[in-house]
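Run log // design_07
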């Protein structure tokens, strides 16, 4: 690859990172439960993306490529932590249309109780609006596994929210 294409890819990544900071922060926060840690995870992910720009073969896959980096960095952060505590920080949430904040907080808590593999799929699908194929690419799982985890997670959430 020539330098022009590397420069173009770098510009593409730069614009993508600038335009989607809030979504990246929201996803990182869903893992870390800490404002500063989430910002660190996003920053580490951006640095890694820029330093590994040469691994992005097709710019059409920029979104899944970067989300894979972000999810992996979030999981790495969790691995480095000795103990985790759930802290209620409702300012993270915005109530969905037609819903109130308490309902949104209950939903957020229910999502956080899901096992990590299922939670990641739910977050990427409904909070980041990713397609199932993109989620499969980000999580390195096949499409049928993504679907089964998604439906299992939705079933658990329905049961939790009924209570």
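design_07 sequence
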């Amino acid at each position: 690859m020539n330098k022009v294409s590397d420069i173009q890819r770098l510009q593409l990544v730069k614009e993508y990172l600038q335009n989607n900071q809030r979504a990246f922060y929201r996803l990182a926060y869903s893992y870390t439960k800490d404002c500063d840690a989430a910002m660190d995870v996003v920053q580490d992910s951006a640095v890694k993306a820029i330093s590994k720009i040469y691994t992005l073969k097709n710019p059409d896959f920029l979104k899944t490529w970067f989300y894979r980096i972000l999810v992996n960095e979030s999981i790495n952060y969790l691995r480095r932590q000795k103990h985790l505590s759930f802290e209620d920080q409702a300012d993270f949430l915005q109530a969905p249309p037609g819903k109130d904040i308490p309902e949104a907080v209950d939903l957020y808590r229910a999502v956080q109780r899901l096992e990590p593999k299922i939670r990641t799929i739910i977050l990427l699908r409904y909070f980041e609006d990713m397609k199932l194929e993109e989620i499969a690419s980000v999580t390195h799982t096949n499409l049928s596994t993504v679907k089964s985890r998604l439906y299992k997670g939705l079933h658990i959430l329905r049961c939790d929210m009924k209570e």
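The chain has two domains: 1-85, 88-163.
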